Amino acid sequence: MITRERTIFFPYDGEPFKTIQVKRLCKEFHFYVQLEIQ
């Protein structure tokens, strides 16, 4: 189950895993990335 507390919202046209902090949060703390159309 995905909860909002562990979800990173990122612009749809971006590349979230090029950001080191996003990659680390996903790997170490099991965060999820949700792409948003703005």
TrEMBL record:
Origin superkingdom: Bacteria
Protein name: Uncharacterized protein
Protein species of origin: Prevotella intermedia
